[in-house]
Amino acid sequence: MFRQVLDIKTDKRIEIKDITQEIQLIVKQSHCKNGIVNIYSKHSTSGIVINENEAGLIKDFKAALEDLVPVEGNYNHNCIDNNADSHIRSFIIGSSETVPLYNGKLDLGTWQSIFFVELDGPRNRKITVTIMG
Question: What is the domain-level CATH number for residue 64?
Fold first, then answer.
């Protein structure tokens, strides 16, 4: 098993960052050829997703999150720290993804990329990458 923590700095409240290359670099450093790679966000107001890295789709995803869970809502959690929308969005998208590792490379589909999704930024975040193989 190989484990490394990836530091991510975000600049916006909602930000979608392609971290595929950073994950592949960690895979290379692990010297593992075959197995699985788990990418896990250690924060309850962020997430990890896999999808296509196309600018229009990224904008659509951000807009869909904002439409699905509006910032201004009658949320009980807002009496604590006014970020219930961020927590709810994280519930929906999830905090981790697991990707097969084959011949030392992430076995992603042709159009797939790994994204870190910031939902309550700007912040400094930590992503745990665990490789088993």
Answer: 2.60.120.460
Of all residues in the chain, what percent are helix, strand and coil, respectively (each to 5)?
Answer: 30, 40, 30
Tell me if 48 sits within 8 A of 39, measured CB to CB: yes
Polymer length of the chain: 133
> What's the domain range around 81?
2-132
CA gap 74, 50 in Å, rounded? 30
- Dump pLDDT digits (tens) for 40-90: 999 999 999 999 999 999 999 999 999 999 999 999 999 999 999 999 999
Instruction: Give the pTM.
Output: 0.95
Q: For residues 1 and 15, what is the distance between their CA atoms, to the nearest angstrom? A: 30
Question: How many domains in the chain?
Answer: 1
pLDDT tens profile 80-105: 999 999 999 999 999 999 999 999 99
